[in-house]
Specification:
This protein has 471 residues and is α/β, with parallel strands linked by helices. The protein contains 20 helices and nine strands.
């Protein structure tokens, strides 16, 4: 029997251990999509206790605590931090097979040197051990990032953001990790939302222009794109219910925009026509600027109305959608390709049933603009677990070129989430090592090292064009 989460955790063969320890383990981390707060990075936040840095905003953990019958008081309520930590430790006792069990213990090992098991019985001991270490300046927000060997990260930022904290971080020569903004224009796209008109008013204010027409909206967004680019941004991200394709003439889109601005209700078809037009227009901007476009879709959000009204979005009440129409996805990509060309594009579906579909779709739009120009993104959200990662990478290997894959991201709000990259790399090395051990690929380091190092780090630098040295 293997020891619990030892140095060869998840590495089942000699080749897997060789690939991880000799090639993947020491590679730096580029986190090209996360939700970390740049203000906390600039201010170098010091956390009072492990619950603050571990449980605050982490809806992965909140969902499991609710599944364990924990009262909301001990999750998002007014219980003490110790009580919340204890409630999470009790939940871990039953989390066999859940990635949170692995992530939590990797984080305890890598950041706190705690190699034991967190449980209800050991919670007090772990609480005191971690909290004592968190008093050290070496455990501040910036130092947690550096301890994880992160060289660059991209936050998630609205077009109206002034990027104040990014500017201040860039000017601070004492911190050498690049913290770049990523453009997330969902509120400008979601014309069906109740706050759309108030958002457009805010966009007009920061753009220093009136937005009376759809043409004005595109001009305002173009101005903000220029501002983001001037502050180091080269990555966009869209959170969509599904990738829609409902074509409309320009004058029809103008009429839809005017209708919404006049306070009139829109049909689903009208909303999709507007979204199709605007995302396609933005894709053309990305292409012209050399940016990467990320499309995250396949999620049904805010399913529990009473809890949404109490806690708001991103609090653990989302699920996988089974409406992710391939015909609309391909029609949208074809439309963009036919009208100026696709930018480098990464597709993520929350529905794992879409892996094979995406694997074949991306092959329809590859060209010599870039190596692996159209990517299937890493197993996302509910799928970034062992079986989900194996399924996604196996499908990509079967239908595309795994060696050009840009690998893992955290998609997290926590400074302790970076061991997820290690978790991914161990699974990658075990998968590839198994193929080598089985005689399905040569045991040739000249071939294998570039694949493992590429997926771990180097492919990301090449794909996004980040100004960092490959390893």
């Amino acid at each position: 029997m293997k020891k619990f989460m030892d140095e060869d955790f998840l590495l089942e063969t000699p080749e897997a251990r060789h690939l991880f320890h000799d090639f993947a383990e020491q590679m730096p981390v580029v986190d090209y999509h996360c939700h970390i707060n740049p203000q906390e990075i600039y201010e170098d936040r010091q956390f009072d206790n492990i619950a603050q840095v571990w449980l605050g905003g982490d809806h992965y953990k909140w969902r499991q605590m609710r599944s364990n019958g924990i009262d909301e008081k001990f999750i998002t309520g007014d219980a003490s931090d110790w009580e919340k930590f204890l409630a999470y430790a009790k939940t871990l006792d039953k989390a066999i097979g859940n990635p949170l069990y692995h992530w939590s213990h990797l984080e305890l090992q890598r950041f706190f040197g705690c190699t034991g098991v967190l449980s209800e019985k050991t919670a007090k001991e772990v609480w005191e051990l971690c909290n004592e270490q968190l008093k050290s300046p070496e455990m501040s927000a910036r130092n947690l990032i550096k301890k994880a060997n992160v060289t660059l990260l991209c936050t998630t930022d609205d077009p109206i953001d002034d990027l104040k904290w990014h500017k201040l971080i860039k000017e601070d020569e004492s911190f050498d990790v690049q913290v770049l903004p990523a453009w997330r224009p969902d509120r400008a796209v979601n014309i069906n939302k109740d706050d759309f008109n108030s958002y457009i008013d805010q966009l007009a204010e920061v753009s220093k222009m009136e937005i009376k027409t759809y043409a004005d909206l595109k001009e305002a967004l173009s101005k903000r794109l220029e501002f983001f680019a001037a502050n180091g941004c080269s990555v966009s991200d869209h959170g969509l219910d599904y990738v829609m394709y409902a074509p409309a003439r320009e004058e029809e889109v103008e009429a839809i925009f005017a209708k919404k601005r006049n306070g009139e209700a829109l049909s689903t078809q009208e909303a999709d026509q507007f979204k199709t037009a605007l995302v396609a227009a933005l894709a053309k901007e990305y292409k012209n600027r050399g940016w990467v476009m990320q499309l995250h879709y396949g999620c049904l959000r805010n399913n529990n109305t009473p809890m949404f009204e109490k806690l708001g979005a991103d609090t653990g009440y989302d699920c996988i959608s089974n409406y992710t129409p391939a015909s609309q996805l391909t029609s949208f990509l074809n439309h963009v390709e036919s009208n100026g060309g696709l930018p480098k594009t990464i597709l993520y579906s929350l529905n794992p049933a879409d892996d094979e579909m995406i694997g074949t779709v991306i092959g329809c739009f590859q060209n010599s603009d870039a190596i692996g120009k159209i990517q299937q993104g890493s197993a996302w959200w509910f799928n970034d677990n062992k079986s989900g990662m194996i399924k996604q990478m196996t499908s990509l290997a079967n239908l595309g070129l795994l060696g050009n894959f840009i690998g893992m991201l955290t998609d997290s709000r926590s400074f302790l989430s970076y061991p997820r990259h290690e978790y991914f790399r161990r699974i990658l090395c075990n998968l590839v090592g198994g193929w080598v051990e089985n005689g399905e690929f040569p045991a040739d380091d000249d071939l294998l090292a570039p694949i493992i190092k590429g997926i771990s780090y180097n492919n990301t630098l090449r794909y996004f064009g980040f100004d960092l040295e490959q390893k």
